[in-house]
Design a protein that fits this description.
The protein is α/β, with parallel strands linked by helices and 810 residues long. It contains 25 helices and 26 strands. Among the domains are: 7-84 and 426-575, Rossmann fold (3-Layer(aba) Sandwich); 632-802, Barwin-like endoglucanases, CATH 2.40.40.20.
C-alpha cells in the first residue's frame, strides 16, 4: 500500500514531506537539467551515487552513465563493509575473490569453517544454502565434513559443531593470527604449494621489509624477483611476465633462510624469504595471547587451527562477522585468512577455495557472453579525472591506485578489464565531509538508488545533515524511506518480478545468470537500466545507449556465443562458458607458459606485491579496537561490548519493514540480545524497552534475554526504521530511534587504512531501562495488535511515557 508508483517532486522544504506527482518525462528532463547545471558550475565530480548491496543487476549501467558523465567514480555503498573490501584483497593476493559463501564442490570438503555467517538467516531458514551446508556436516551421513563455527552468537549448528569458537566481537583477527602461529609452529603448511606456487620463497630485505626486485639487484625489471635455489646454493631470478625462472636449470626454491646479497649500487643487504618474514611476525601470536584478547580458550583455538590445516580440503566461508565491519583490523584479518588458505594449499582445489575463470586466456575470439565490466566504459576516464576520486590517496586499495594495479594483472591473464564496482567504493565519511565542508571540493548532487544510507551508513545524524545539504538528491526506490523523504525527486523502481535479468554479478562470478520478467512494470515504475539510459540520453550520451530495451541488451550480450540466444539462456538460468575446473594455475597455456595466477608475479602472493606497491605492509598487524583492553578509561563508563549485527529473517538490512509484506508481524520490534546475567544486574526483563548508548549517542530497542551471546556483550540489529511513523521532521520515520548506526563512529582515522571499512563490531556501550524499573508494569501489547489503528500500540505508550518528540501538541 505504500509503494511508490509515480514520480514525485518535492514542493515543500526538505524534511516537510510535501510532494507533487509528475510524469516520468518531466522528472528525467528536470533532473538532467539540474545535473548539467551543477556539472557546469562545479564539474562532473560534484555528483556521487549511493547504492545498496547488489539490489540490481544494472550496476554497470550506473557506472556507464557516471563514466560518460565524466565522474571519477564517486560511489558510497555498504559494500565497503560487506565483502567488497575482502574481494579487493583477494584479487591482489590470488587474482580472484575466493572468499565465497560455500565451496563450489562441497562433497570434497573435509573441513568447513563458518566464520561469522548465519546461513539459515542469510538464505532463509530452509533455503538451499543452509540445506546444502547442513547436509554436508550431518554426522549421520557417510564421511561428513568437520565443522568449525566461529561466531559471537549461538547460531546455525554452533552447539553441534565439532569446534565452536565464541569470541568477543571485533577480536577475530587475533584468532586468525594464532591460527597462523600454530601452522608455522607445528609445520602444518603444504610444502609443495607454498614452495612452488606461492611467492613465499621470494627474498625480502630486512632493512625495508620490501621484496627484492631485479631493478635494484641487477638493473632488470621492477616486476621480477629474486629467489635462492636450494639445488645450487645460488640466486635465481623470477620472470613474472612468463611465469618462469630466467635461468635454464632445475630450481628448488629455498623456503627458509637468511642471506646477504650485493645490490646493483654495490651495497650489501641482508635478506630473508617472505616465508620467514611472515613466520617471524606471528611467532609471538600464540593461542594463549589470542585467548586473552578474544576470550576463546587457547586449547580450542589450537584445535581449530590444527583441524583446518590437517583435515583438508578446507574451506573458510565468507560471513559479515568474519572481518566485515571490523574497522582498523578488517584488512589485517582478511589478509591473514588468505595467508592461511595459501599456506595450507586450499586455493583452486576441489572442496577448497575456488578460483574462477571469467575467460579462457587462449580464447582470442571471446566466445563467452559480454561481461558486466565490458559494459562500463571505464577506459573513457583519464588520469586527470581519476585523481578527483574521493579518498584516492587515503584508502588506496579501494581507489584508483589499487584498482589499476589489479586490473593490469586481470587484463593480462584474461584479456578483460576488471569492473569498477566492488572495488571502487568511497569512504562515506569523506563523502559527507565533501558535502558539508566542500573538502576536497564541493559535492552537491546524489543519485541514491536501491539504497537507504540513513539506515546503512555510520553516524546517522551526520548522514542526515549531509543529505539535507545537497542541492540535488534523486532517490530511485520502491518505498519512501527516511532517505527518500529528504529527496528532491523520488523515482519509482521496477521490482525483481518486473524486470528481466542478465548478469555476471559485476564479474564476481565466472558464469552468467539470465532470467525473464514475470510481469511488465506497473504504473510509472521503470527498471534501473531505463532510468540511467534515459538520464544518459538527456545528458547527451545517446550514441552510447543503443539498446532501447533491456531485452535488446541481453540479446547483444549473448550474440557472440555460438548457438545461444535470450530464450535459451533464460531456460538455462545459469550458463557456464567453461565448466568447473580445478588446479588451473598448473595448466599450460597455448604459448607454453604455465597459467599461474592473475597477480603481478603470477604466483599466489602470500606476500602481496600489490599492497607493497601501494605503500602498505603486506604482513598483517593487530591494533586493539575499542575494547576494555584498548580503551580502559572509556570502558569505565561504557562497560559492555557491542556488535551491530544479527538480523532475523525475513527482514533484510533496512528492508521488508513496510506494510503489506506480512513481515513486520514476524519481527515487529528491534530486539537487542543480551546475556541473562547482564540483564539481571541491570534490572532488565525480556521485552523491556532499553537504551543502548555509546559515546556517539543512544537508541532504544527491546531486550531479548538469554544465553545466546557471551556475558558482557550485547548484539544490536541494524537498519531499523519505522514506516508507520510520519516521514516529516522531527519523526523521520523513527530512523534515529532504533537504528544501530546512530551508535557507530564514522571517523576515517578509526577506519581500516586500506579499504575505509569502519568499525560496527567491537564497540563499547552501556545499557539501561527506558523506564525506571520501579515504575515498570507487566502490561504488554500483543503482537497481533501491532499497527492496528484501533489499539494503543507500544509506540503510543512509549511516546507518552518517555516524553519523546513534541510534535503538533502530541
Amino acid at each position: 500500500p505504500k509503494r511508490i508508483n509515480h514520480c514525485m517532486k518535492r514542493v515543500g522544504e526538505k524534511g516537510e514531506d510535501k510532494w507533487e506527482e509528475i510524469s516520468w518525462e518531466q522528472a528525467i528532463s528536470e533532473i538532467s537539467e539540474k545535473l548539467l547545471a551543477l556539472k557546469e558550475k562545479y564539474g562532473a565530480k560534484t555528483l556521487f551515487s549511493s547504492e545498496g548491496t547488489y539490489r540490481s543487476d544494472h550496476l554497470w549501467a550506473r557506472t556507464r552513465f557516471f563514466n560518460l558523465f565524466g565522474n571519477p567514480g564517486n560511489v558510497v555503498d555498504p559494500g565497503t563493509i560487506c565483502w567488497c573490501w575482502n574481494y579487493s584483497l583477494n584479487m591482489a593476493m590470488v587474482g580472484w575473490p575466493v572468499e565465497a559463501i560455500m565451496p563450489v564442490s562441497p562433497s570434497y570438503t573435509g573441513t568447513i569453517v563458518n566464520w561469522g555467517k548465519r546461513w539459515s538467516e542469510a538464505s532463509a531458514p530452509e533455503g538451499p544454502l543452509w540445506r546444502t551446508m547442513r547436509g554436508r556436516i550431518d554426522v549421520n551421513q557417510d564421511n561428513p565434513a568437520q565443522y568449525i563455527n566461529i561466531d559471537t552468537t549461538c547460531i546455525d549448528g554452533s552447539a553441534t559443531a565439532d569446534i565452536w569458537l565464541q569470541p568477543y566481537p571485533g577480536t577475530d583477527c587475533a584468532i586468525s593470527f594464532a591460527w597462523l602461529n600454530v601452522i608455522f609452529e607445528e609445520k602444518l603448511w603444504d610444502d609443495d604449494f607454498v614452495r612452488y606456487w606461492s611467492n613465499a620463497p621470494f627474498l625480502v630485505r630486512k632493512d625495508t621489509g620490501k621484496l627484492v626486485r631485479l631493478d635494484e639487484f641487477n638493473g632488470g625489471k621492477h616486476e621480477d624477483f629474486l629467489v635462492m635455489n636450494e639445488s645450487t646454493g645460488e640466486l635465481v631470478t623470477w620472470c613474472s611476465d612468463e611465469n618462469r625462472y630466467y635461468e635454464d636449470c632445475e630450481v628448488t626454491p629455498v623456503l627458509q633462510g637468511t642471506f646477504k646479497i650485493k645490490m646493483a649500487d654495490g651495497s650489501e643487504v641482508e635478506c630473508w624469504t617472505a616465508f620467514d618474514a611472515i613466520e617471524d611476525r606471528f611467532k609471538d601470536w600464540t593461542p594463549e595471547r589470542a585467548s586473552k584478547i578474544s576470550n576463546v580458550p587457547a586449547r580450542k583455538i589450537r584445535e581449530a587451527a590444527r583441524l583446518y590445516a590437517t583435515n583438508g580440503p578446507a574451506f573458510i566461508g565468507w560471513g559479515l562477522g568474519g572481518g566485515d565491519q571490523h574497522g582498523v583490523n578488517a584488512s589485517q584479518f582478511g589478509i591473514a585468512k588468505t595467508m592461511a588458505r595459501i599456506l595450507t594449499g586450499n586455493i583452486d582445489n576441489p572442496g577448497g577455495e575456488y578460483v574462477g575463470q571469467p575467460a579462457d586466456p587462449d580464447d582470442k575470439e571471446k566466445l563467452f557472453p559480454v561481461r558486466d565490466s565490458e559494459l562500463e566504459l571505464a577506459d573513457v576516464l583519464t588520469p586527470e579525472i581519476q585523481k578527483d576520486y574521493i579518498g584516492n590517496e587515503q584508502f588506496r586499495v579501494m581507489s584508483w591506485p589499487g584498482f589499476k594495479a589489479i586490473d593490469k594483472c586481470y587484463r593480462k591473464m584474461f584479456g578483460l578489464n576488471r569492473p569498477m564496482m566492488h572495488q571502487m567504493l568511497c569512504s562515506p565519511s569523506l563523502m559527507w565531509k565533501a558535502i558539508l565542508e566542500k573538502d576536497p571540493y564541493p559535492v552537491t548532487a546524489c543519485i541514491c538508488w536501491s539504497s537507504n544510507p540513513l539506515a546503512w551508513a555510520p553516524n546517522t545524524k551526520r548522514v542526515y545533515k549531509a543529505l539535507k545539504a545537497l542541492e540535488l538528491l534523486v532517490v530511485v526506490d520502491y518505498w519512501k524511506t527516511p532517505t527518500a523523504a529528504l529527496a528532491d525527486y523520488i523515482i519509482p523502481a521496477a521490482d525483481w518480478m518486473e524486470r528481466p535479468c542478465c548478469t555476471t554479478s559485476e564479474d564476481s562470478n565466472d558464469f552468467i545468470v539470465t532470467g525473464d520478467r514475470g510481469v511488465e512494470p506497473l504504473y510509472d515504475r521503470h527498471m534501473d537500466y531505463d532510468f540511467f539510459r534515459a538520464l544518459g540520453i538527456a545528458c547527451g550520451q545517446e550514441e552510447y545507449w543503443p539498446w532501447e530495451t533491456y531485452e535488446d541488451l541481453i540479446e547483444y550480450r549473448l550474440e557472440r556465443v555460438p548457438d545461444m540466444d535470450r530464450e535459451k539462456a533464460t531456460n538455462l538460468g545459469n550458463y557456464f562458458p567453461y565448466g568447473t575446473d580445478f588446479y588451473k594455475y598448473a595448466k599450460p597455456l597455448a604459448n607454453g607458459q604455465l597459467r599461474g595466477f592473475a597477480t603481478p608475479s603470477r604466483k599466489a602472493e602470500i606476500f602481496s606485491s600489490v599492497l607493497e606497491e601501494l605503500g602498505y605492509d603486506p604482513i598483517p598487524t593487530y591494533t586493539e579496537p575499542e575494547t576494555p583492553l584498548g580503551n580502559p578509561e572509556l570502558a569505565k563508563e561504557y562497560p559492555l561490548r557491542l556488535t551491530t549485527s544479527g538480523r532475523i529473517s525475513p527482514l533484510y538490512h533496512s528492508e521488508m519493514r513496510t506494510p503489506g509484506h506480512g513481515t513486520r508481524s514476524v519481527v515487529p520490534y528491534p530486539m537487542t540480545w543480551m546475556h541473562i546475567n547482564d540483564a539481571r544486574k541491570l534490572h532488565i526483563r525480556e521485552g523491556d524497552w532499553i537504551w543502548i548508548e555509546t559515546r556517539m549517542g543512544r537508541i532504544r530497542q527491546k531486550a531479548h534475554v538469554g544465553w545466546d551471546v557471551p556475558e558482557g556483550m550485547v548484539q544490536v540489529p541494524h537498519g531499523w526504521w519505522f514506516p508507520e511513523l510520519p516521514a516529516e521532521e522531527p519523526w523521520s520515520q523513527g530512523v534515529f530511534e532504533s537504528c544501530a548506526n546512530v551508535l557507530v563512529d564514522d571517523d576515517p582515522e578509526l577506519a581500516d587504512k586500506m579499504t575505509a571499512t569502519w568499525n560496527a563490531r567491537g564497540l563499547l556501550c552501556k545499557v539501561y531501562p527506558c523506564i525506571d524499573p520501579a515504575d515498570q508494569s507487566d502490561e504488554n501489547v500483543p503482537v497481533e495488535h501491532y499497527d492496528n489503528p484501533g489499539v494503543e500500540t507500544v509506540w503510543d505508550r512509549a511516546y507518552k511515557e518517555l516524553g519523546c518528540w513534541e510534535l503538533n501538541g502530541k
